[in-house]
Amino acid sequence: MKKLLLLLPLLLALVSVGNAQSEARHHRIVMQLVSGDTLVHKGLMRQLRNMKEAAPDMELEVVCHGPGMDMLMSDRSIVADKVKEFNDKGIHFLACENTIKERKLDRAQVLPSAGFVNAGIIHIVERQEDGWSYIKAGL
Amino acid sequence: MKKLLLLLPLLLALVSVGNAQSEARHHRIVMQLVSGDTLVHKGLMRQLRNMKEAAPDMELEVVCHGPGMDMLMSDRSIVADKVKEFNDKGIHFLACENTIKERKLDRAQVLPSAGFVNAGIIHIVERQEDGWSYIKAGL
Amino acid sequence: MKKLLLLLPLLLALVSVGNAQSEARHHRIVMQLVSGDTLVHKGLMRQLRNMKEAAPDMELEVVCHGPGMDMLMSDRSIVADKVKEFNDKGIHFLACENTIKERKLDRAQVLPSAGFVNAGIIHIVERQEDGWSYIKAGL
Prior knowledge:
By secondary structure, chain A is α/β, with parallel strands linked by helices.
């Protein structure tokens, strides 16, 4: 019996490793937003809320490029408040520098809660190389 | 140690030859359908037929969420027969519970051949974590 | 030999630590084009230019199927010159044989710089299985 008790912590550790693998996985997700459609932007906000509820500890980046950059521009985004709210909860929004140059967007208008990456797609590729899951936003 | 490093390319080559030789790989694929466009639904059915032909033993799940849930609703799907047919051949169609709640869809109208997942995107993420390949349906 | 095999995981671990540390990673990317929208085709050309600039040594395949095959048809592509130009720089464009059959496209009209795959999606799946990153083109 004593020997069993000594082994108990080990057994418990094994059990919790098993649990960790099944129920509470740690998700790392990179989403790509290319669409400038405001319906897509609103739909994305609903998805983020659902995802945050289902997996509160996930790491999530939303990479915006091309027309998708509109979601991060203070002069035209219709979800700027939500972006700030989700950013406060740890979701990262990333603006593509290449798009800013090409579309001659005003850098000063990019939402203050957004970060920057040089090339949106290459960033998404590197995340996948690091084992992150990829989800393309939009219809 | 040096000898080991010299042998490494050989060992890696043996491993990759093994891969190259196995022609009939076992594919595990998770597709995401978000679009409610019936042309997309019809196109998806054509893709499923081609995929089934090219890889009869693949494991395939089609996760439907957002407007994509329309494909699994008996009162509006234009490919209900095909969904049943492919389901009988082992392709799984999964309805997103979050979407059903948000869009206030009638659960009783979901095609009987469909299964359910709580959060569509999180399910897709978990499949990717398990090594499944991800394909986003639609244009 | 047995001892070598036992040490293999350790060696591979060392190699992968090395990779993680090196900044100029080698990217392998498979892009999927399904859209026939010429604005998407033009946007894709801009993306390819940016990607090539950010990662000159990447391996990149653009798999075209469904309406996306229009980009590779000499009688309707509006970016045929660019496709040739990028192909000369090592980017591969792949036409889907299933699509050619289904849409009864004239094989002789497929741009000479394009290659062929039997089933577009299955090819993309196999690339992912080999560790390539997946990017879906379009909005």
